[in-house]
Specification:
heterodimer, A: 2 domains, flat, B: mainly alpha, Cytochrome C Oxidase, Chain A, 2 strands, globular, binds protoporphyrin IX containing FE, binds copper (II) ion, cytochrome bo3 ubiquinol oxidase activity (chain B), transmembrane helix (chain B), cell membrane (chain B), respiratory chain (chain B), electron transport (chain B)
Chain lengths: 122, 715
């Protein structure tokens, strides 16, 4: 077992705590989410464009929260968190991407739905 | 209640009524009597010989990775036995219920099992074998061996380790409980929607299936976090990435798969749970639900899962084959790359489990090709093993026999997998026995490697070798059983027989089904030989004692410390100079263990909290199955309370004094049990004895229990 300190305040992760960053991240995320919600309920864009736009907003929110809230950077204490995040990205693209691709073709052949019910078949 | 329940419900007992106890079914009644007698014998013997203190202190509260690993393996073995009995029942039913004139008994029109009962048996068989037998056995062996191979004193998170064990055990226990209270799902181990939705499966079976599955998912995910952190952060000085033993590499790859795929299953099952409990419509037809989403999510986990199972098996083969070929592993670097290539590709093939769902042709082609790609790294591995044996001094001892059987089964399973990989082929035999025979070749390969690994590492963990005579009978009867059961099964698949039949309409298939039953008889005999194997080994253990390097030709760090391994693994953390460090030391004549200036060793302290969390999670799952809301809430509140109590506990570590280390080391070096020091030096016997200790701690104020013994157990 590695020797480690019993005082939680001395852990490097805890030392990263930063009230201003938390507040900033909270406000920015709230703003981004409001924007996404507004885009969706006002139908300001075509369904496909709305999906793209909200995904983009979500991506920006992820980066902001990763940096400001989870303090992901290249420092010694945090590097493995960042590596894990980066490694996760290709998986995310593969699973979501291939699933979307499969459903796209599938809907055309099996689930003939009224256009309003299916946004993925466009 | 947010959903419409069929049948009675009351606030006190939920859906639980006396009619839910299947006492009128003779098979289940017999099982219950068998289990009850067994339970009474085990509990009675523990009390009679005053072993409760020992069991509590050394096992139930332990955070020692070796003991946790042993308990994982025990859980796996028990569930393997249950799964085997299920298989026996399926095969006998299918050997009887052929053709309209076949006899019926026990309420069944044909055979002796009703369709409802057969359904539960094959569902339980599949789920148990995949997540409650193979997974615990593999996780258990990784738990024991990985820290030893990298020169660590424990896992990175010993407490989490125990928690993972008890959650998995709770899941397995829940499956067992469903035998006697209520029933189990009867639609296949991977579930179907909308069939598994509440309106179509109104009973508790699907709920049992779902929560047991969910518990195992939690346990395995925690285990994977632990193993990854251990491998990344706790390697001994000098152990660079490219000096890591190959089994450790395989474990890393496999746990990366687990960590990334099990959460998907958690979501897939979670959405089904929301449908069944809250009335949402994720998987219903209509209301915005999507039937196909379930298949997609399930197999996004399901295919990586099969590689989660096979990679540790490959790792075991890669350890056994060099040891018994007396050569270094051929193509170490390619082996590492292949392990990660398999892990990587496994993420892009899942749709081959539902080629027939009517995805677009280019989608099916894409997945056909990615599936075939898996063959490349697998082929690399096969050739590496063969080249390792080539011009080696091959010794056909038991571990090697099992590894060679695994190699053979891999060829059969891999080739037939390739045949499945053609979507055009799969359209003909999907959901048929050909597929079933394919994946049984693969899972039997895993079983063979596990048996090989147990034979191989047993002396390290317990200090004596298993005997070879009955072990060889066991091996050869397993070979016979496998041939007689699965060769006819491939033919039946080719003949068009579909899976999960409770009645077989074509009498032409009868000869094949009868041959598979003969194979089952061989398996039954094999199980008896296995019991004899264990019994004789235990009886003759004094004769079969071994030193640190049990096989004489082993190569890695785990063979450097004593057999059995002391609680702290290594008195000094070894410095690693080479790949195959132990072989390197033997070649350079520095394999001798010397006494030295021992230092205090810092270790985690035992705790009963993970066990209680496991019990409570089982209570929670049981309450959710029967919708006993007050009990669910109670268990949940207690769990949260325990977690909070534990987080305030500062007394979680302990130190083994240098004096004590020296004594254990000296005793182990002398290798004689005569030098066992008297009990009481540390307030406890060094060697596990049968004396009961008072005040076994637990959760009163202080969450840690008294110290276990440091010395290797089971002397
Ligand atoms: C060479 C590598 C492999 C290939 C090409 C392959 C291919 C396939 C394909 C195409 C199927 C779907 C057949 C169908 O449902 O119609 C399948 C099913 C299956 N395979 Fe494999 N496989 C491979 C390795 C493995 C391994 C390593 C395991 C387990 C450790 C495994 C276990 C399974 C299981 C459990 C199923 C069926 C699950 C079910 O329907 O219940 N396969 N395989
Ligand atoms: Cu697959």
């Amino acid at each position: 077992m590695t020797q480690h300190t019993q005082n939680p305040l001395e852990h490097p992760e805890v030392q990263l705590a930063n009230g201003r960053a938390y507040l900033g991240s909270f406000i920015l995320s709230a703003l981004l989410m409001t924007a996404g919600l507004w885009l969706t309920i006002t139908h300001a864009m075509s369904p496909f464009a709305a999906i793209l736009a909200t995904s983009l907003l979500a991506g920006v929110a992820v980066i902001i929260q990763g940096y400001l809230l989870l303090h992901m950077d290249l420092s010694h204490a945090q590097i493995w968190h960042t590596v894990a995040m980066v490694l996760f990205l290709p998986l995310f693209v593969v699973t979501i991407g291939l699933t979307a691709w499969m459903f796209h073709g599938l809907y055309e052949r099996t689930m003939i739905m009224p256009p309003a019910m299916s946004s993925m078949s466009h | 209640m947010l959903v419409h329940l069929q049948g009675p419900w009351n606030p006190l007992l939920g859906r639980l009524t006396l009619q839910q106890i299947p006492y009128e079914n003779p098979i289940l009644l017999g099982t219950f009597i068998f289990a009850a007698i067994l339970g009474v014998i085990v509990l009675g013997a523990t009390t009679r010989y005053g072993k409760w203190g020992y069991v509590w202190r050394e096992w139930l509260t332990t955070v020692d990775h070796k003991k946790i690993g042993v308990m994982y393996c025990l859980v796996g073995l028990v569930m393997l036995f249950r799964g085997f009995i299920d298989a026996l029942m399926i095969r006998t039913q299918q050997a009887i219920a052929i053709g309209p004139n076949s006899p019926g008994a026990l309420g069944a029109v044909h055979g002796y099992l009703t369709p409802f009962h057969v359904g539960q048996i094959y569902t339980a068989h599949g789920l148990i074998m995949v997540v409650f037998a193979a997974t615990p056995l593999l996780v258990g062996i990784m738990n024991i061996i990985v820290p030893l191979q990298i020169g660590a004193r424990d896992m990175a998170y010993p407490y989490l380790n125990a928690l993972g064990l008890w959650l998995t055990t709770a899941g397995g226990a829940l499956v067992m409980l469903s035998l006697f209270v209520g029933n189990f799902a009867h639609g296949g181990w991977y579930g179907f929607v909308p069939y598994f939705e509440l309106p179509y499966s109104p009973g508790v079976g699907v709920d049992y299936w779902m929560w047991a599955f969910q518990l195992s998912v939690l346990g395995t995910t925690m285990g994977s976090i632990n193993l990854i952190a251990t491998i990344v952060k706790m390697r001994a000085p000098g152990m660079t990435w490219m000096r890591m033993p190959i089994f450790t590499w395989a474990s890393l790859s496999t746990n990366l798969i687990a960590l990334t795929s099990f959460p998907v299953l958690m979501v897939a099952l979670g959405l089904l749970g929301m449908d069944r409990y809250l009335g949402t419509h994720f998987y219903t037809a209509g209301m915005g639900g999507n039937l196909m989403l379930y298949n997609d999510l399930f197999w996004i986990w399901g295919h990586p899962e099969v590689y989660f199972l096979i990679l540790p098996a490959f790792g075991m083969m890669s350890e056994i084959i060099p040891t018994f070929s007396e050569k270094t592993l051929f193509g170490y670097a390619t082996m590492v790359i292949a392990s990660f290539a398999i892990g990587g590709v496994s993420w892009g093939v899942w749709l081959h489990h539902f080629f027939t769902m009517a995805a677009a042709p280019n989608v099916n082609s894409f997945y056909s090709i990615t599936t075939m790609l898996v063959g490349i790294p697998t082929g690399v591995k096969v050739f590496n093993w063969i080249f390792t044996m080539y011009r080696g001094r091959v010794r056909y001892e038991l571990p090697m026999l099992w590894a060679l059987l695994a190699l053979f089964l891999l060829l059969v399973g891999g080739m037939t997998g390739m045949m499945n990989a053609f979507a055009s082929n799969d359209y003909m035999w999907h959901n048929g026995l050909f597929v079933v025979a394919h994946f049984h070749m693969m899972v039997l390969l895993i079983a063979a490697s596990v048996f090989g690994a147990v034979e191989y590492w047993f002396p390290k963990v317990f200090g004596f070798k298993l005997e070879q005579k009955w072990g060889k009978w066991f091996f050869w009867f397993m070979v016979l059983g496998t041939g007689w059961v699965f060769v006819p099964m491939f033919f039946l698949g080719m003949a068009g027989m579909t899976r999960r039949l409770d009645y077989i309409p074509y009498t032409q298939w009868a000869p094949y089904l009868h041959i598979t039953l003969v194979g089952m008889a061989f398996y039954v005999v094999a199980v008896l030989f296995f019991v004899a194997h264990l019994y004789v080994s235990l009886r003759d253990r004094e004769k079969n004692r071994v030193g640190a390097d049990a096989w004489g030709t082993s190569r890695n760090l785990e063979w450097m410390t004593h057999s059995p391994v002391p609680a702290y693994n290594f008195a000094f953390i070894p410095h690693v100079n080479a790949r195959d460090e132990w072989a390197w030391r033997k070649e350079n004549g520095i394999a001798e263990l010397h006494a030295g200036d021992y230092e205090d060793i810092h270790m985690p302290k035992n705790t009963g909290i993970p066990l209680f969390l496991g019990l409570l999670s089982m209570g929670l799952a049981f309450a959710l199955v029967w919708r006993i809301w007050w009990l669910a809430l109670l268990c949940l509140v207690l769990m949260v309370a325990l977690i909070i109590i534990r987080s305030f506990d500062r007394d979680t570590d302990t130190t083994i004094p240098a004096r004590e280390v020296e004594r254990v080391e000296r005793a182990a070096r002398d290798g004689s049990s005569g030098s066992v020091p008297p009990a009481g030096v540390l307030g406890d016997a060094v060697i596990a004895t049968s004396t009961v200790r008072s005040g076994s701690g637990g959760i009163g104020g202080n969450t840690t229990s008294p110290r276990p013994s440091w010395a290797p157990r089971n002397r």
